[in-house]
Write a structure and sequence with these properties.
homodimer, 212 residues, alpha/beta, nine-stranded mixed beta sheet, two-stranded antiparallel ribbon, globular
Chain lengths: 212, 212
Amino acid sequence: MAGKVFFSVTMSLDGFIAPEERKDDPDAQQRWMAQWTELQQWAFPQRFFRENLKLGEGGEEGRDNDIARETFERTGASVMGKRMFDLGEQAWPEEAPFHTPVFVVTHEKRDPWERPGGTTFHFVNDGIEPALDRAREAAGDRDVRIAGGGATILEYVNAGLVDEFTITLSPVLMGSGIRLFEGVDADRVALEQVRADRTQRVTHLTCTVHER
Amino acid sequence: MAGKVFFSVTMSLDGFIAPEERKDDPDAQQRWMAQWTELQQWAFPQRFFRENLKLGEGGEEGRDNDIARETFERTGASVMGKRMFDLGEQAWPEEAPFHTPVFVVTHEKRDPWERPGGTTFHFVNDGIEPALDRAREAAGDRDVRIAGGGATILEYVNAGLVDEFTITLSPVLMGSGIRLFEGVDADRVALEQVRADRTQRVTHLTCTVHER
């Protein structure tokens, strides 16, 4: 049986999944990091998160941790956009945190980039559908995660290629940043709410995606 | 003991609390109504909603209905902006659905407007704080609801005058419309999640508001 195609992101209550990038201004970078840290504050203390990024022993083991681990374990392959890859290439530890094949949608021609720990980045030059096809094949009966960023997720949503998603709603107002659903094809995309897990810090909301 | 100041709105998953207004185009009006109906689809079948707007007997009686009724019952007075009042003046039935004093923030000078069923609209010309003071006094130990619209709610939030809110997250993507938190003073406003009630149709998310 083929797996599902899903995404899973943390979103502020005003709809942002990341602060705005301002590369030229060092103050803005500090602000970026402060906002990012606040948005993601639920994730950092989790045992799974700490393990997977090799930040050390210990950590919380509750529903948030279970959800983070389940999201990882269901994922047989990921797809990401070039922007997310470029940011991650700077930020991930040498053992990139995917531990599966990752298909990067890009115009750049580049040989597969194998990292210790099982992550291999493949660079796909012919668009979002071929990248997804290759990810499905690599994932086998596990699911394919559209890892990000926002623009790439939205392309897949608007193309009708996403089966479901989980939004971790963080009780934060950011005021500005990158909106998850900016430009969504609202005439085409219908949702059905299937789950909401409220934890101490956040609410994980799961919807399936349907064509109207 | 003085009551709390709160708001309670239905929001799409992409952050809109109403469709965009386009008064000049009849097609756009139909679209407005279709989007509004979809956003609010959880409310219409509820017994309390039908009772309160005199739409007839019957209706659902589950958690959604309890929440709608509790929101009504806790409210000793409401505050609203002039835009919401102008829209409502056309749309509410003769027995306006508040059944309490309502303070309208407006430049218009006008005598109190008493409706059958206990709703009296008072027109307050000296800004949001005096309107809230009068509403608090009228509400006694019940709560004051900032009824809307979005811009008025945001003024109260940014002024640090809101204690808590409930957002009913409707699993809908609207793509455009009036955003609840557009222009929020994110450097000033911090939230704490206190409750999430997932029902069959929506998730009711309650946060308290704090100053950073």
